[in-house]
Amino acid sequence: MQQPPFRDPAVPLPDRIDDVLRRLTLEEKVGLLHQYQAPVERLGIGAFRTGTEALHGLAWLGPATVFPQAVGLASTWDRDLVRRVGEATGNEVLAFHHKDPAGAGLNVWAPVVNPLRDPRWGRNEEGYSEDPWLTSVLAAAYARGLCGLDRHRGSAPAILRTAPTLKHFLGYNNETDRCTTSSNLPPRVLHEYELPAFRAPIEEGVAVAVMPSYNLVNGRPAHLSPLIGQVLRAWAPDDLLVVSDAYAPGNLIAPQAYHDTLPEAYAHAVKAGLDSFTQDDDRAEATLGHLRAALAQGLLAEADVDAAVRHALSIRFRLGEFDPATPYDDVNDNVVNCPEHQALAREAARRSFVLLANDGLLPLRDVTRIAVIGQLGDALMEDWYSGTLPYAVTARAGLAERCETVFCEAVDRVTLTAESGPIAADPAGGPLGVGERAGLFDLFDWGGGAYALRSVTTGRFVSVDGVTLVNDQPGPNGWEVRQTFRMEERPRGTLALRHISTGCYVGAADDGVLCLVDDADQAVWLAMDVVRSGTEEAARLAGQADVAVVVAGDHPLVNGRETEDRMTLALAPAQDAVVRAVRAANPRTVLVLTSGYPLTWTARDLPAVLWSAHGGQEYGHALAEVLFGDADPEGRLTQTWYRSEQELPDLLDYDIIASDATYQYFRGVPLHPFGHGLSYTTFDYAGLRVRLADDVLEAEATVTNTGARPGVEVVQFYTHQQRSRVKQPLRRLRGFEKVRLEPGESRTVTLRLPVAELAFWDVTRSRFVVEHAPHQLMVGRSATDLRLSARFEVAGESVPPQRGPLRASCHDEYDAITFVDETRVDGDAVRSDAEGAWILFRQVDLTGRTRCVARAGSTEGGVITLRRGDPLYGPPLATFPVPRTARYGYHSVEAWLEDAGGVQDLYVVFENEGVTLAGIDFGAGA
Q1: What CATH number did the domain enclosing 873 receive?
Q2: What is the pTM of this model?
Q3: Residues of the chain whose pLDDT is less than 70?
Q4: Which of 51, 294, 469, 758 could form a disulfide with 299 if both were Cys (CB 3.0 to 4.6 A apart)?
Q5: Full residue range of the structural domain in which residue 34 is found
């Protein structure tokens, strides 16, 4: 029997998809629009599921190789290494898929490309960098490994290893109220900062899918963004699959209240570009029912369904599902945590370490006894998107292979006593309650007021089972972490425990068993007595060792993770106290920070500080290799480390330009700058040469290892436009090169930068523009340690004065306004948040203009005034009364201009809160 064309690999892919579409009924097509795509048995088409987590190794499906967290992989600044980690992860996904196709799908939900704008973001560990270009470069490398792109030929593979999905589109850096907050993205921030992170992986064809984010952007849910079709799909060389985030489609009616009914919302989502609904887990029927209702009500046409199904099928074809064989059919369990992947995990961890400070203590020499100290000294943590550790080499274990070690967890051992008696733990791990003898508990401080208690009797952590306190968990874990508590002061030195996950207090039942209660007045008042001070023990052991290594940091599931932002950058207070005490006891102290985000600490005279993200299964071996100098610390920071959260704008302020945020605009002196990282040797820079030829900036500089040992340098190139119509970044990363040099060895590093890359988004014409302007090229070791610079002139264009029409969202500056959706489908507008709010349009040519028309609306009515030169005292040019309208209703309100000739800086002043403006146009009088 002859095979249908869609099963013939020799038939062009678009024709194969067309063939399947012709054979499918409308009902069968609708069945393909859910995460769990229904099989079409009459055509021999099986079930298919989107979504396997593979952020830094295969996750959630059992033991598999665990690599460093994404922000740690990024700190290597090594494209090829990141690609190899992606390749290893892709092969392990394939192995699980071949064993259980239903459990491990080949559409992987990685990498995360949201620029790390604010280090307090709970998901900071998932991203790569605060720089969008560096993010895109590293994301493309990881996706290239996942999908199997031929790195030598640079061409897309005929068959994908896996199908990578970029997360999360768009403007997503807050967990606080993430489903209801709207990210304000002015046009320049959108086009210069947010969108570029997505571009390279999509344009290169290595990321074949995208997931929108939970939040709204400029008032419109990201899942309904017109940019999906207008920008993302315009970049993609092939079909781009768009999958929803989990349960996000349902948010469109509640809590977002953007549509009144789910058929209406789902129809809008499909038309906006959503192809796959991740809703209700594997229970697809409700979603499919709403899509059928949308079709029946005329909200959705079969052509809309066909477009979505085409994208869904394209991925399956490119994964080789309908081919007789693929290059990956022989991949099996032997690759999972194989020796090669273990070695790669060790290499990635070793090369990710960043040496933040060093007075010569490192690398360690003549050391026979090390005190390993800290909550993270003998523990490896799994984050929400990591795999299950197949084994764990902790800091203690890794260092113990090199010399004698003593260990101190450095946590307080305490007793808890209620008025009715001491609190005891059930030796079998059951309920906690009032007993005859006090139980002993170890107290862990994870920062942000989050504490965990571990029973000394059982070695298990206190958790909540239903409403009862038990001690049966290995540590904080799960989507809803139920093992952490806050301590609230009560009279006479007592405290109450408040369960963080539920917000309930710890009380006692009639039989004395501890349980959760809603009312704070029912909380048990507990006296906490320290039996053994972790700080004092740490100092004692540190004083008896040649070197003290304090391993401190965060727990990836506590005080900063998905659903939870951090409020502070500070290291947990108890851990910080341990660092100070150990440093006082032993001047040869190394602080080893392990965290998914930047931290601050109070001990300023530490001789050496080393940072890495949570490094996966080989962390301890990698740490030992760096501490003892087997390898040069290669890592460099991909984020600014600020001195305090006080230096940051509001968490929800996405306008990095106006708020002077990220290394590009920050004017302060950071704790550690973007790109920072020390070596065990020294480097000299010389001979910077710059020339422009054929619209390409070519630069080269010579780097020499001036030290006595081999070393690794990450040479970083930055530019700054010195004159411009608009506010320009102080510096912007344009390229980097990682070089390994022997003592005395020199290497010439080069940069080739197309002049077009120097463009910025011109709000007056809604396009990129390269201005005629002088620029400075800088090269060095970090964003602030710049060793050489050279000036060059770009012969670009000058931005002419504006004549209108003026889009309200395309202004130059603003105060007290919010970006909102002009309509539910497309366009941006602005809304005033206070009386006297304003937007500024620079250099508006009003020559010959005598009247203007504003397209505006307000549910309460209002007034808009045009002023020249100043929002408060500038001469008024026109006043518009804004009538009451419905939310998306606009009136075209006309006014005559007074004394408006020539080129003006035009302020649009909102005299009332809640006025929405879409745009202003000008004309000559009759």
Answers
A1: 2.60.120.260
A2: 0.97
A3: 1, 150-157, 924-926
A4: 294
A5: 5-333
